[in-house]
Structures are given as C-alpha cells and as structure tokens.
Amino acid sequence: MDRIVEGGRTPEGWCQLMAEQGIHLSARTLRQKARQYGAFYAMGQAMFLLPSHVEVILKSEAARRAPGYRRNPSATRAAH
User: Fold this and answer.
1) How many degrees, rounded to 5, is the angle at CA 19 between CA 13 and CA 20?
2) Distance between CA atoms of 27 and 68, rounded to whole angstroms?
3) In 1-80, which ranges are E strands?
4) What's the gap between Cα 68 and its chain centre?
5) How confident is the model at residue 73 (pLDDT cuts 50, 70, 90)?
6) DSSP character for 9?
7) From residue 29, how far is each of 35, 58, 65, 75 by CA, in Å?
8) 25 in helix, strand or coil?
9) Which helix (H) or strand (E) holds 11?
10) With bands split at pLDDT 50, 70 and 90, how would you rate the model's confidence at 3?
11) What is the pLDDT of residues 15-55, one digit of tens each?
C-alpha cells in the first residue's frame, strides 16, 4: 500500500510533473489513454496512476507509432 500512495498520482498530478519537464499533455488525454490500455486504478470517479501505469501508456503509444505498425490490418488486406 505504501508504494501506491507514495508513487501514485492523479492524471492532473502526472500532467503537472510532465509540464515541469517540458512535456505538455492534458489530463483528459492521459485519462483516455489510461482507460484505452487498462493502466490505472480507480475508486468511484477518481483515477490514480502509478509510475508503472504511465510507463505502460508511454510504451504502448510508442509501439503504435513504430514503423511497420498497422492501424487497421483488415483494411490493408481488403485493398489487395
């Protein structure tokens, strides 16, 4: 439990920390990505992200942008 409380932040908290490093991201976008990848804790309406959750989100987004990633493989097959 200590690890969660000490290392976790709300999406707003993560965005503020990233902004201090020159990375500008909205809390809304971070929430959307967290839900998309299932990388978050929630209680009621509150969302809580650990550093490991943010890492999953960043790695998943990087993989999507990597060369060779196909966004919609079925559309590619249909064109052949």
Assistant:
1) 95
2) 29
3) 41-43, 46-48
4) 21
5) low
6) B
7) 10, 12, 17, 27
8) coil
9) helix 11-20
10) low
11) 999 999 999 999 999 999 999 999 999 999 999 999 999 99
